[in-house]
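Entry 12.
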Amino acid sequence: MIDWNNIATEWLSDYAAMGVFVVDKGLKIRFWNRWMAHHTGKSARSVMGKALFTICPEIETRGNARYYEEALSGKSSILSQRFHGYLIPMPADCDQSVFPCMQQTTQIAPLNMGGDVLSIVTIIEDVTERMEREQDLTVSERRYRTLVENARDPIFVIQDERLAESNPAARDLFGLSGDPGEKEMDFQRFMASIDPLFVPRLRQRYEDRMVGKPVLNLFIYPIKGQDGMRRWIECNSVLIDWEGLPALLVMARDVTRRKKAEKALFEERNRLAVTLRSIGDGVIATDTEGNVVLINRAAEEMTGWSFEEALNKPLLQVFPIINQKTRKPCENPVEKVLETGLVVGLANHTVLVAKDGRERIIADSGSPIKDREGNIYGVVLVFQDITERYRMEADLARTRNLESLGLLAGGIAHDFNNILAVILGNLDLVKMDLTPASEGHECTEEAGQAVQQAKALARQLLTFARGGTPVKKTAVLSDAIRESCAFVVRGSNIKCEYAINEDLWPVDADIEQIGQVLNNLFINARQAMPEGGCIQVVAQNDILDGSSLPLKPGRFVCVVIKDEGVGIPESHLARIFDPYFTTKQTGSGLGLATTHSIISKHGGHISVVSQPGRGTVFTFYLPASDKSSVDKAASPKTTPSKGTGTVLVMDDDAGICKMATRQLEKLGYQVCVAEDGKAAIAMYQRAMEEGSPFAAVIMDLTIPGGMGGKEAVGQLLKLDPKAVVLVSSGYANDPVIANCTAYGFKGAVPKPFTLKELGEALDVLLHLAGGGAGRGTEKVRVCRS
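Predicted 3D structure (tokens):
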């Protein structure tokens, strides 16, 4: 038969991982297992039969002896007691590293037999590790609670559509009670705070998370806070075990300020982007390696590179710049900025070569981009297309040069015309006394032709001089264009092609001067094509808004003359309209200068575009006339007949006076001479008083140091409103000559003039005045100044 008592006793003695000892009614030790012997250092043999309090005095000294007395008396119904912090006595020589102090749980149980207590069993369990774990858990929970409760960010646990836990920050933000009995109600308050548009999305995220589907940990949604304000919450959720069931731990953060800052930054970036794309200046930003990181719309248009194409490209690939004069590449502005750390500007005459090869003159500056610490992390270039401004400034400078030159040219031409007048007038007189077959007649004829050429040269000088005001009439340019081109190319291997608007608007222009313009341009085109070719002429109506050309907005007639010639070098284009600039060995350099001056004085504009080997295109604009009809051609001049009467000549040049006297006498007139306007008025008044008025008066416009014709004619007309006064001047294109009737003159005879021109002028005016041969013939008058 198995003795279970012996087996249990042996097991408790040898294998139990706890202390077991038994005392009898006298509290003497009757059983002491191996655990007790090991941890007290006292063997079972040494303690057997001895009093418990002798072996373990700490039981008595610590006041725990009463538990044994209660167990022996049988008065206590407690079968077991637990004592925490009870220390088993340690042997004096024990190693503390082997036998540390223990936390113990002690159970004291009386063994009854028939109602009597026979002995007491004491079981001691070492709970040191468990107590340490419990203590660590308590500390950890306290730390967690401290962190969670004091966290400024909301933290809460969602489980089965209830808020299982929430910290004060969450309760304040969502208006939660935090009462364990209101977990479901708190969840409803939480859901009510969320923007309805985001509720379905959040529910889907919650359901996916709870079943383990992959979900973005971080998401942002708007809520209505406890204070009624709209806020943005950033949340991060983790699936956890909460009291044995899955739950969602949500850590939230109020990012309203950040969202507002992001919105403000986004709006600022948008404003900056809109501004950059809207401004007319080109903007390119690079990093410190010189690679493009930003390019605005204006820069895209000027460079021909889109933002996508230019991004991360080297600057000089997108922004190639050369010197206009030398055609050599310019220094990289980014390198210059990075080297100096300063704002730098491009040199004058910098040209940007676009992706399609077009060139623009630009002005720009480069500036370093710095962070708050002053470190350079990029460079920004701001540039603008100044091609038109450059051309306008060049035109203005050219005009000023022409004006300055005009003052000199006008004076020279005036004196030159006076000399020519004497030569031409005397040649006419000499030729009248020679037979056509004589050698002298031929010589005078050739001399006269030379004078006419000199007259044309003087007229070119006067065209851009101060006296070059055009005598305008309303006309359509169609016929003038065809006639001029046909005349220039006659007898050559060059043809003309026309594209002229059938309804071309009329212009108010000096047709003689515009004809000079057309001749100059067609002659240049012909000379540019020595091997032959085609001149293409386009004439059309155009309405300008004033933005693309230095002209006022309005209606214009545009004429384009294109050749297929050798072209003009880039270095010459800037000076092509300068006076006396020419590349021809036989050229005077006045053709295009005169052309520019004529167009400018008509209120128009002329420009040129050329590429060597590809031809040249001249384009000029003239203001369209407001008149609907053109002026009819003047009637042919009548053949001058012999005149009668006396003509008063007022001129400070003795040679002119002698020549005019001879011409007038040849025409049958008597002549009186005055040296200035004051003397002429006195002589005219005296003649009227004597009853022998002058038939006509010829006045020089300019008298150095004296009264000229412009002032004298007014006083003369006060004496005799019917006076026939002609103006004559070496300034053949002077405004007074061009509009003589506006100043009181009846006609004009610009110097130099021929005998025929003078006779026709007097004949027509005297007949129109009604004086005929009878005016001023009452008596022969002796002229006295």
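Annotation: Confidence is low (pLDDT under 50) at residues 76-101, 771-785. The radius of gyration is 60 Å.
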